[in-house]
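Box S2. Input/output pair 1.
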Amino acid sequence: MTRPRILQLGQSYTFSKYFELPYAPADILAELGCSYERASLQLPQYSGIIDYLEFLQRYLRRNIMRVNPISEAAREVLIAPILLEVCDQTQTQLNIEYPINVSEQLKGSFDYYISSSNSLLVVKAKQSDLSQGFTQLAIELIALDQWTDSQTPALYGAVTNGEDWRFGIFYRQDKRVMQDIKLYRVPEGLEELVRVLVGIITNASS
């Protein structure tokens, strides 16, 4: 028996609409010709000196105590400072609410987009739902694959609610999205998170 389609022909889908679909990521991605797996990923990690960690730790601890990150706007005070410091170190540009339009099924705005040799997307999880947020991230990585002229074999992304971060990789040739089973927690896991972010952007060896 043929399984009914999830994505309806002729219907428009923005990135945020995928967040609302009540289906498993594997089923949604299959309709876009991609596969999905969960695994323990070996992500790049920067091994050099990071001289702003102490400042960032204090800053984020204060923000977490003073702001209840239940809204997307409130989560900005936890996410943006990390990405701005990482961009300052790597001399890259942080693009916020970056719009793209690949097709009727792949369009919308990236919450945060850092263009580098690997490229990095970060998606804010709505209602702090990392599972549904990862589905949206996977869709955005597929869109980025078709939109960018970069020749890198893998594209990286992360979904976060401000305190928890989860990474994913899209292997372009295999059309395969891998979800990391590990969570990076802020502020206690800040250093490891930052080293991964810098490692991805600078294409550091893992």
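Box S3. Input/output pair 2.
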Amino acid sequence: MTFPTVEEIRALHERYAPSPVAFEVVYSHCEIVWRIAEDLLDGLNDTAMDRELVRAGSLLHDIGVYRLYDSAGDLDHKNYVRHGLLGHEILTAEGIPETLCRFCSCHTGVGLTKSDVICQQLPLPPADYLAITNEEKLVMYADKFHSKTTPPRFLTADAYAAYVSRFGHDKVDAFTLFRKTFGEPQVRTLAASYGQDLAG
């Protein structure tokens, strides 16, 4: 499979971003997730993992966030859980292969099940939105270590584990398994290099 280049992905972000501010928030986060994923990959030394797929998936995973900005530049937090599905729709319309589209729809939290959607009455079609491949799992996991809050910040593994605990023990168990599988990135070093705070 041929993946879009970094330049092509950046151009796609620029096309869908409703403002320079939105572009800076979302694209910078995607670049950081790519760096975190690379850091984790270096620690794994897993030659079976497709680095180009991880790069493209990291850089594209949050493109759906742009669809949640209103004309005043405010983000629709109530429907934020829809950003993955919206991103999947954007990439499908752009003719991007399903392999990459899934990085959008399957990275929320540590995975959303059909039961999660129904029980939590989430504004999504009832279905499983779960990372399946190792590349999808790695990008989803890397995403947990950086937040697009205002101002943006990095999170330690313990900070995210505490956050996700409010969604149930099964979510903590899933995150714990990812920690054991992929290890932990050097978030303290990354936070310092970006001049951002570190939670936890």
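Caption for Box S3: The chain has a mean pLDDT of 96. DSSP finds ten helices and three strands in the chain.
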